[in-house]
Structure formats: structure tokens, C-alpha cells
Amino acid sequence: MKVALFIPCFVNELYPHVAMATAELLEGYGIEVDYPLAQTCCGQPLSNNGDSRGACEAASRFTELFKHYDYVVSPSGSCTSYVKHHYSWYIADNAAYRALQPRVYEIIEFLQDILKVEQLPKPVYFPHAVSIHQSCHGLRELQHAAPSELMIPYHSRLERILQLVDGVEVLLPERRDECCGFGGTFSVDEPEVSVAMGEDRVAQHEATGAEFIVGADPSCLMHMGGIIRNKCRPIRPLHIVEILTGRGGAA
Q1: 0.85 exceeded by the pTM?
Q2: Is the pLDDT of residue 251 over 50?
Q3: Which helix (H) or strand (E) holds 128?
Q4: How far apart are CA 113 and CA 84, in angstroms?
Q5: Which CATH class, in words, describes the domain spanning 129-250?
């Protein structure tokens, strides 16, 4: 199969190592990975701020760029969710998008649902305690875990795939699926509320005794990471692909 790597704009600018770890992980399973250089923002910030024309143009451009690939894979739950579940607000009548939509995957989804991995490409040893952060988009739109409000048996994609890593200790904060407070442009419109929520969330992860906050959405990790640096806290945010490729120790 030929897979296109969809790297959100902020990941490209701030977390290129997450993009490279994602590519390395896919290539480790023998997949041909392409990175279309013409890709830009998926349009989520435009949509959040009411720019329907810009959001429509971004959705159409994304579709044209990625429509010929077998799959499109991204390390961002939020951006993946937006493409899969919200482009239809703007281009529902686009036949190319309707064909592309089921082939767009967040990286952990892709590993578990398409590749059905039972082992990592190479053995990984990560002797650290990690606290799992379930991001809102991944949790409720990509079914990364069971939302607590549904009162159904608990499961977590992130916990399950971390079972393939030797030495890791997986912990959960007291409220396992509480929002970190980022919310994209919400953090700009309501900075005081956003920061207060983030401080609470970091404190909940710290209370587990973990050394790392591990998630599958760089935007949440970015928000909590900023608070951690500002408060000089010892816990560190880490994208899950960095652990799965053995890059976590250098984070």
C-alpha cells in the first residue's frame, strides 16, 4: 500500500520529530510513505473562526492533494477528526471526498484497525511511568477510548498499544478523560479559562507519579507542555509515536 503522511501545520513547525517518528513507524512495517510537499493547514482554525469560504477551500484542496493515495495517516487526532467528520459541512457533495473520507486515519487507528499490529517493528524498552491523556477529539470522534459519560466498559487504544512496549508502566489520572483546556482557538478567546483547565489537568497527571504525559494529539501536549515549562514542573509531555519508535528517551 502507498500511504500519504498528513502532518498538521503546527506539527510541521513545532514538532517535526513527531512527524519523523510517524514516518519511521510506518516504514518499519514495510509501507511506502509519501509526504506531499504541497499540503497546508487542514482548515480547522478557519472553520472554528467562522471563515466558511476559507474552510471550504482548504477542504477541497486537501481532497485534491490526497485523493489518489491508498490511505492518509496523521499523528494528530484533532486534525484527523476534523477531516473525517467535519469536511462534510463544506464539501458533502464532493464525490472525491466521499471516497477519500474512510481512508483517512489517525496513526494509532491505522496501526490497530488496518495493519492489526501485534508487535512493533523493533523491540522497544521504555522503563518509565506514563500517565495517559485522552484527547477530546480522539476520545469522542475517533473512539480512542470509552468516554466516562457513556458508562460503558472501559477501553483505551493507547493503553492497548503500549502493551507492546517493554518496561513501561501505564497510569491514569483521577478523571481519565477530562479536557486539557486547549480547544484550539478557545485558548486564544478564553485564555484564563484555558490555562486554568490546563493547570488542573497537569496536576492530575502529576498526581499519578508519572514521569511523562503521553497522548496521541500534539495540540493537547503542546498546551500542557507550555504550562509545564512555565511552572517549571518535572513531568514531560510525549507523543505516543515517540515511545513506539524508541525515540522517547531523547524527548
Answers
A1: yes
A2: no
A3: none
A4: 16
A5: alpha beta
